[in-house]
């Protein structure tokens, strides 16, 4: 599952360049045969504006949110994109005029692009993901601001108006009835630091906005009094929430002062705890109740959970880990990503290394004597051992490991197998942080499949189930690929999820930048 390609021509630099939005959809050229069940839209978010006037943004996550849409109807495909008209975007466009003024000497990535809320400035630049709440769709980042969209920007919503939270992740779990669960930092407001799980109910019979009925269902305590960890996603089984508290910490003082110091960047708010390792917490879902088991493991970075499920008194937690305590975002400066290939490789040599891992958490950890492995699931080498101090030490099973070859931005057949003992995971392959292939992993046998083409840069692979299918991998993978040297450089690629063979592609004669996350809207 490692990359077959080197990228000496540096074509990947183009996916970190500014593009313009469109005024109307572009028709795409289709090759192959689009499956008849693909009738809907592929929606994706990412950065689209990487500078303001002559002043550049510096970090991958600073670019202004651009929403992409491929529409599928009767085998015909169109492509459309629009910047989300957030306050951050409007201010960037205003600054664009200002930067031509000689009085404007120093551009501040962070301070200038954050909007005020209750005395603290927080960004609404929703470049990370899009997901449904009730009958609406929201473009999101990781702060308290989410933006209602239908490609056009509809309205900005502040989650602080409804729940005690300082941000929510871009990775909620959504149940079959539309109930949304999410997690976010809760920085005090009279209480200790914590992480709150919130629940947004599904579409309401009385047509009211479900967001108004959002509730905190359970709270995880913070390992450190003044330094919460950065949280990007969480796990959810039938009956439990799983929260991995990594050593990447938000330094609160720096966080609060960052807004008032010119030249400060949100990357300055993070620091790594080199000693604490990783704490894994669980909580019961119905009713919400924190369970004070002290699961501990070695330091790791974590952005994306793959899947979590219960099996015979255990919780199985599969995730895309990054070894060690260093923050991977420190390697995602645009200067690093736009560097020449040899330098890109050199940077990735010293960065944390990726690994797909399985952890198993015993739900009854006190039944065995100290020092014995508590995990008795027959299909995994994972261990959990009670120690004298009452902590339970976890050792993972490695499901996939390739130095500097990440299996990241993972997806599963969420509809059929989320929260279940599943077999297949799909992901974007990162070659020294450059996205250059689509991967599939059988988490039981560790068998792998790859789709890859020279000088082509795909994005997160979304799984869409064949409605007539029975197997977990009866369906297609949809991804947006950018091939900068091609005549039609952007295309939506549809792969057979069984073996990652190509079914169809819909190409447009326009360049596109990188996208992070998105969804298929039937
Ligand atoms: C698609 C390919 C990209 C190419 C390179 C990728 C390399 C990736 C390597 C690891 C995986 C990383 C996954 C990251 C995925 C993602 O989508 O990240 C986007 C995250 C963003 C934009 C985060 C923004 C966070 C903000 C604004 C946080 C604000 C906050 C604080 C700084 C402290 C207090 C809380 C609050 C307000 C949330
Ligand atoms: Fe993410």
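Q: What amino acid sequence fits the structure above?
A:
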């Amino acid at each position: 599952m490692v990359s077959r390609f080197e990228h000496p021509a540096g074509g990947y630099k183009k996916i970190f360049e500014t593009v313009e939005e469109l005024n109307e959809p572009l028709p795409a050229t289709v090759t192959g045969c689009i499956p008849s069940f693909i009738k809907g839209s592929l929606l994706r978010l990412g950065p689209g504006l990487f500078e303001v006037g002559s002043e550049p943004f510096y970090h991958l996550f600073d670019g202004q949110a651009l929403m992409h849409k491929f529409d599928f109807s009767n085998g015909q495909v169109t492509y459309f994109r629009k910047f989300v008209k957030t306050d951050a975007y409007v201010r960037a466009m205003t600054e664009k005029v200002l930067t031509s003024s000689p009085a404007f000497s120093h551009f501040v990535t962070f301070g200038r692009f954050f909007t005020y809320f209750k005395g603290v400035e927080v960004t609404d630049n929703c470049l990370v993901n899009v997901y449904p709440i009730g009958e609406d769709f929201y473009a999101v980042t990781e702060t308290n601001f989410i933006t209602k969209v239908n490609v056009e920007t509809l309205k900005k919503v502040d989650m602080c108006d409804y729940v005690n939270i300082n941000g929510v992740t871009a990775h909620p779990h959504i149940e079959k009835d539309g109930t949304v669960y999410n997690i976010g930092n809760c920085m005090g407001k009279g209480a200790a630091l914590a992480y709150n799980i919130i629940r947004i109910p599904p579409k309401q019979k009385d047509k009211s906005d479900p967001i108004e009925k959002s509730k905190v269902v359970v709270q995880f305590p913070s390992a450190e009094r003044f330094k919460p960890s950065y949280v990007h996603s969480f796990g959810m089984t039938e009956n439990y929430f799983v929260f991995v508290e990594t050593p990447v910490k938000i330094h609160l003082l720096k966080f609060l002062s960052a807004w008032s110091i010119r030249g400060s960047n949100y990357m300055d708010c993070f620091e790594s705890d080199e000693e604490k390792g990783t704490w894994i917490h669980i909580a019961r879902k119905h009713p919400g109740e924190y369970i004070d088991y002290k699961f501990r493991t070695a330091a790791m970075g974590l952005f994306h959970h793959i899947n979590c499920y219960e099996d015979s008194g255990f919780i199985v937690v599969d995730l895309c880990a990054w070894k060690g305590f260093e923050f991977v975002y420190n390697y995602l400066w645009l200067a690093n990503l736009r560097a020449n290939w040899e330098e890109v490789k050199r940077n990735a040599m010293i960065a944390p290394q990726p690994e797909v891992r399985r952890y198993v958490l015993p739900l009854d950890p006190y039944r065995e004597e100290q020092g014995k492995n508590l995990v008795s699931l027959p299909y995994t080498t994972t261990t959990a051992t009670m120690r004298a101090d009452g902590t339970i030490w976890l050792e993972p099973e490695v499901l996939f490991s390739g130095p500097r070859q990440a299996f990241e931005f993972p997806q599963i057949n969420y509809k059929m197998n989320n929260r279940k003992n599943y077999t297949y995971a799909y992901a974007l392959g990162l070659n020294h942080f450059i996205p250059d292939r689509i991967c599939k992993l059988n988490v039981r046998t560790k068998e792998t499949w790859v789709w890859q083409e020279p000088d082509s840069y795909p994005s997160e692979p979304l799984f869409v189930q064949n409605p007539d299918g029975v197997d977990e991998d009866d369906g297609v993978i949809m991804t947006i690929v950018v091939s900068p040297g091609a005549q039609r450089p952007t295309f939506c690629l549809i792969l057979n999820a069984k073996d990652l063979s190509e079914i169809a592609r819909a190409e447009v004669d326009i360049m596109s930048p990188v996208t992070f996350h998105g969804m298929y809207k039937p």
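Q: And what stands out in the fold?
A: The pocket of L2QA6LS6 (ligand 1) is lined by residues 61, 122-123, 127-128, 141-143, 166-167, 185, 250, 255, 266, 269, 303, 328, 332, 408, 430, 433, 435, 459, 514, 516-517 (CB under 6 Å).
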